[in-house]
Amino acid sequence: MLDGRGSINRRLGARLWLSGIWLGIMAALALFAPMVSPHDPLAQDLFAGRLPPFWMSGSDPAYVLGTDSLGRDVLSRLFHGAQIAFSVALVAGLATALVGSLLGLLAGYMRGWVDIVISRLVDIWMAFPPVLFAILLIAVLGTGLTSIIIAIIVIDWTRFCRVVRAEAMNQSAMDYVASAVVAGRPRRDILWREILPNVLPTIVALLTLEMGIAVIVEAILSFVNLSISTDAPTWGGMIAEGRTSIHQAWWVLAFPLGVLFLTVLSFSQFGEGLKDRFDPVLR
Amino acid sequence: MSAFLTVNSLSAVLHGFDQRVLRSVSFSIDTGEVLGLVGESGAGKSMIGKAILGILPSAISIIEGEILLNGEDLQKMRPADRRRLVGATAALIPQDPLTALNPSRRIEPQITNRLVDILGWSKSDARVRAMELLNEVHIDSPERVMGSYPHELSGGMRQRVLIASAFAANPKLVIADEPTTALDVTVQKQILRLIRELQARHATAMVFVTHDLGVVSKVCQRLSVLYGGKIIENSRVPDFFKGPRHAYSRALLAATPKYTDPDASLLPVDDAVIEAVAAEVLAADKEWRHGA
Amino acid sequence: MAHETVAEQLDTERDVLFSASGLEVAFPDMAAKPVFGRAPMVRILNGIDLEITRGSVLGIVGGSGSGKSTLGRALLRLVEPTAGTILFDGRDITDLNEDALRPIRRRMQMIFQDPMSSLNPRRRVGAIIADPMQMHGFDHISTRVDEALDHVGLPRSFRSRYPHELSGGQRQRVGIARAIALKPEFILADEIVSGLDVSSQAQVLNVLAELVEELGLTLAFISHDLSVIRRLCDTVMVLQRGDVVEYGDAEGVFAAPKAAYTRELLDAIPLPDPQQSGW
């Protein structure tokens, strides 16, 4: 055949690579934070307060990215912040995906009363303002890493549920599902073997997006001091602190903000890239 | 007197591929004449119509050849001038009557917009003209249809509206891109008759893109058979249906089902025929490369 | 008792594999649903009676909205009928639940209109054909997959391909291979050539015609195209807006259609002939 169908190759986007590399580096730093950090992230040195980063005059080579107003090393705090951010992203992201996708798949595929119950629940759930909801939850559960993760799951499962439900409904209407029925496949089997694999790219894209959101939520909660203990090196906490001394020491704010921005962006780009890659029709 | 539309050795490529998707396509159409472009999917037949109208997808670019519309080479014109000229002289009847109409707007502005925006008509003149046109495409209650949204009309009705809007500005050239493929046969017959009637009344030059040889035999005077973006046969319609010259055209005609002749019909196209025509296209490619 | 024997005899003489009587299907019309309460029902099929003799090919034809696809799917219990009964090989399957249907499912298969959407895009051709056989506990599955591919004229090497790597005609032949691999008695073919180019259309139809002969299949063939129906079918049913307007043997229907709608359909077909009358 001369018509070029089937020979169309999608170029594997640079965004998958760039975002993947950034996330890889950050994940590695998070994993080995205690080993690669030049200083104890909590150690204060009031004589070395507000030291600028290495390229500016008055900097100290021991503090590459400078220090905050209490003389804590910004670089080490960033690394340890990554640890917290990535733990939250991974655990909260996966758990949210699991809960939301499962309910979404059931609603979209079973339809009927299952769908009605789940969909109404989602509607009601989404009517609560999420930030208030989170603050309320933390107030009840107390601060701490676990509380943050639980708060994210409780608030964000609806995102997965809605999207996955719609996608499962789309896929259920496809004839390959009808052909599985014709073949005599039991309903439960059809859900796992036929529909789930086709909804998976959507779930993966959402999952990485959710990881980004988890990082942001954690940062927001730290920013309003509802996360872990006040002096724990979280990105949000660093941003909150940096804000107070923006005119004297911009780097205390700028570095965590930049890292946070790049990480969240990378998560969403990575997901989109993976989705394209996953799709056998586009591949 | 030269033809109204002349396409001269037009070649196009898909970005990132060195193979051409249109291969030195040449044809011409006189005023009042209907040319059928026939081929199977991937033959490039729709692409030619899009190339003439200047609406090729961005991944496809024309690398050589000329498109002469009333003697003016479209390829050499500035994009804005080209759009103006094409907008004023040519029109498209699209394949899918559902997606070709904006679902959130009423029918009236969708017909009159071109008249008002491109040709500078007044709104009331355009409205009168739109009513005339809906009458011309045999819509019984033009008032009601003008105020309707696309989803309130049947597929056949929508196609009538699109035909009306195509003929709104008295185009000298109409490109019909598989205009009846999405319709039921009974509706198809009405629409084909309507297109024929309007084309004859306005003496429009028309390019009729289709995969259906039956349809070609009803509306076209001449036809070009395409394979792999190359025209492999040009014939007058009566001659073609007496006996196509090219083996591939013969195979296509033989594969077209005919309910009147159930046993003789449906000879599948032989692989050898496909291979032969593919080889012919590739040989022409080689020659073209040497020439270039 | 004597009465029953006579009935049985009649049955074996005509050997009806599939039959339906008074089959009705209705869907809720969500566009017309009031704010509270149930949506009104739109009837798609208005009481259809049909009988398909073993080894015969029934063509079901009609325009869009005639209910032809719904009829096919209702026969296979993919769409729930609102009234009427469906008998398969003498057994009432109208109210069987999915578990009770499963053993019967193997015996009635379906080929779909859009091979792209009916073949799971994430599975290879070999797995797509093998899967239903595994479920029904067939042995020598690998050999059977090869045989099925042979039957539809596809190279065995296609087992390792994905659906999107095939042309439309080849995909449709995979759909046929999957259906016949289960050795069914009945196959429903729903507009299986309407998305194909004429060249592959002819190929698919010929493959199907050969299989009907070779394997003694019983076939219901749904199409909007009377020319295609003519090629393949012994009996023709013409549907219009959920009603049967004509039902009879193909020869007769094509030679002397009784219903005005059938005549209209026939007259509207553009034959590849510039001299065709009525245009």
TrEMBL record, chain A:
It is found in: Cell membrane. The keyword tRNA-binding does not apply. Pfam families: BPD_transp_1, OppC_N. Gene3D superfamilies: MetI-like (1.10.3720.10). The keyword Cell membrane applies. The chain crosses the membrane at residues 12-33, 84-110, 131-155, 203-228, 249-270. One of its GO terms (biological process) is protein transport. Coiled coil: none annotated. GO terms for cellular component: plasma membrane. Keywords: Cell membrane, Membrane, Peptide transport, Protein transport, Transmembrane, Transmembrane helix, Transport. Residues 86-271 form the ABC transmembrane type-1 domain. It comes from the Bacteria. It is a multi-pass membrane protein. Belongs to the binding-protein-dependent transport system permease family. PANTHER family: D,D-DIPEPTIDE TRANSPORT SYSTEM PERMEASE PROTEIN DDPC-RELATED, OLIGOPEPTIDE TRANSPORT SYSTEM PERMEASE PROTEIN APPC. This is Peptide/nickel transport system permease protein.
From TrEMBL, chain B:
Its main location: membrane. One of its GO terms (molecular function) is ATP binding. The keyword Glycoprotein does not apply. GO terms for cellular component: plasma membrane. It is found in: Cell inner membrane. It holds the Pfam family ABC_tran. Keywords: ATP-binding, Cell inner membrane, Cell membrane, Membrane, Nucleotide-binding, Translocase, Transport. Gene3D superfamilies: P-loop containing nucleotide triphosphate hydrolases. Residues 5-253 form the ABC transporter domain. It is a peripheral membrane protein. It comes from the Bacteria. SMART domains: AAA. InterPro entries: AAA+_ATPase, ABC_Ni/Peptide_Import, ABC_transporter-like_ATP-bd, ABC_transporter-like_CS, P-loop_NTPase. The keyword Repeat does not apply. Signal peptide: none annotated. Belongs to the ABC transporter superfamily. This is Peptide/nickel transport system ATP-binding protein. It comes from Hoeflea halophila.
UniProtKB/TrEMBL annotation, chain C:
InterPro entries: AAA+_ATPase, ABC_transp_ATP-bind, ABC_transporter-like_ATP-bd, ABC_transporter-like_CS, P-loop_NTPase. The keyword Transport applies. Keywords: ATP-binding, Nucleotide-binding, Transport. Residues 25-266 form the ABC transporter domain. It comes from Hoeflea halophila. Pfam families: ABC_tran (PF00005). The keyword Transport applies. GO terms for molecular function: ATP binding; ATP hydrolysis activity. The lineage of its organism: Bacteria, Pseudomonadati, Pseudomonadota, Alphaproteobacteria, Hyphomicrobiales. This is Peptide/nickel transport system ATP-binding protein. One of its GO terms (biological process) is transmembrane transport. Belongs to the ABC transporter superfamily.
